């Protein structure tokens, strides 16, 4: 058990509710910053050194809180933004507790985990618990759209760190943490053709939609489940009227790959679809967003430490690989030992049935807290 007194799951749930009922869509910087204001005040009040980076590009701020100490820090990073728009709390996803499940927008991905990190750091400072290394806590505003403004601060904090902990949701029926993730990326494909009357001047037209359809089939064929590579195209757009040869079309492309070599191969194959011939021009913008979090000996050693702590607390902590990316991809690619999926158990990320198993809040937070106290 950690030296720090974490409190009961009931106590954690009561405060977590205030986070969930403060809606924080990624697209609303003011809403995200409102929750950051509260966390900043709490952390300042217990002695954390605070750095707050102003948001850019329409996103909220990034909060960095540091505890005293010498040497390479332990970094813990969570995001406050969610995929849910304002109003779902009052309409389709109200806060409710049904047995061991607590429901609400963003509770699983990842307000529970970010709250656990905040709570552990706050209580370590409040109670004066000594830690082997200083702690750096980051609360970020834009993970759900690829961390365009928070990637640099996360990477800066991770340089020279002894370990990085990511309290993204625990996965599966048994609450697995994450030692590997696929790399993720995306492109926007734009196709320009030539319009013409679909009846009287058909041969003069060059259909952007047909060219796009051919490209989509080529992208779909790049999926190779045995190699762990997937591609997906959505949304798709193009054309104006049924009687006009479409002069423009486009789509968004998502891809996932388990290793940097596979990611680079897929990127090259998609970029090779760009061309200009016979009245058709295909252009592509994008690339790899999050590099793969490949399972390494350092990640596995960190996992072994966490699993041993969980066993002492009274539960098994399995591990898994995931197809989705997180901010842990960035730090793992830097060679920093990274352990992900240290948040709460539950299910339904990005879905109306999103929930956590709230009795697990305290034992899961205890593992995270003991890691923060003892790593180094």
TrEMBL record:
Organism for this UniProt entry: Paracraurococcus ruber
Keywords: Carboxypeptidase, Hydrolase, Metal-binding, Protease
A family per Pfam: M20_dimer
Domain Peptidase M20 dimerisation per the UniProt entry, residue ranges: 179-278
InterPro entries: Bact_exopeptidase_dim_dom (IPR036264), Pept_M20_glutamate_carboxypep (IPR017150), Peptidase_M20 (IPR002933), Peptidase_M20_dimer (IPR011650), Peptidase_M20A (IPR050072)
GO molecular function terms listed in the Swiss-Prot or TrEMBL record: carboxypeptidase activity
SUPFAM superfamilies: Bacterial exopeptidase dimerisation domain, Zn-dependent exopeptidases
Transmembrane regions listed in the UniProt entry: none
This protein's name: Glutamate carboxypeptidase
């Amino acid at each position: 058990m950690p030296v720090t007194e974490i409190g009961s799951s009931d106590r954690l749930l009561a405060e977590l509710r205030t986070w969930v009922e403060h809606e924080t869509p990624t697209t609303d910087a003011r809403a995200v910053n409102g929750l950051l204001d509260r966390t900043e005040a709490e952390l300042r009040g217990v002695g954390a050194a605070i750095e707050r980076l102003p948001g850019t590009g329409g996103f909220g701020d990034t909060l960095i809180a540091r505890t005293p100490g010498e040497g390479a820090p332990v970094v813990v990073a969570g995001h406050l933004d969610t995929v849910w728009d304002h109003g779902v709390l009052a309409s389709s996803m109200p806060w409710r507790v049904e047995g061991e499940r607590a429901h609400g927008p963003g509770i699983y991905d990842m307000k529970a985990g970010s709250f656990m990190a905040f709570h552990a750091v706050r209580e370590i400072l409040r109670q004066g618990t000594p830690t082997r290394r200083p702690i750096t806590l980051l609360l970020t505003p834009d993970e759900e759209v690829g961390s365009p403004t928070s990637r640099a601060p996360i990477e800066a904090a991770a340089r020279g760190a002894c370990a990085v902990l990511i309290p993204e949701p625990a996965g599966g029926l048994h609450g697995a943490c994450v030692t590997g993730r696929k790399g993720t990326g995306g492109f926007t494909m734009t196709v320009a053709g030539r319009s013409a009357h679909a009846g009287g001047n058909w041969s003069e037209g060059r259909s952007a939609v047909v060219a796009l359809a051919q490209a989509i089939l080529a992208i779909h064929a790049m999926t190779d489940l045995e190699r762990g590579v997937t591609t997906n195209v959505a949304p798709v757009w193009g054309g104006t009227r049924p009687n006009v040869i479409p002069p423009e079309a486009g789509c968004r492309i998502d891809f996932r790959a388990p290793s940097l070599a596979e990611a680079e191969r897929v990127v090259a194959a998609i970029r090779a679809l760009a061309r200009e011939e016979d009245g058709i021009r295909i252009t592509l913008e994008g690339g790899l967003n999050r590099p793969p979090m490949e399972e390494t000996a350092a990640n596995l050693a960190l996992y072994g430490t966490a699993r041993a702590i969980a066993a002492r607390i009274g539960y098994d902590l399995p591990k898994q690989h995931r197809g989705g990316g997180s901010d842990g991809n960035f730090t793992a690619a830097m060679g920093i030992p990274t352990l992900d999926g240290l948040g709460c158990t539950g299910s339904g990320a990005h879905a109306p049935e999103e929930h956590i198993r709230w009795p697990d809040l305290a034992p899961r937070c205890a593992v995270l807290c003991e890691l923060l106290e003892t790593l180094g």
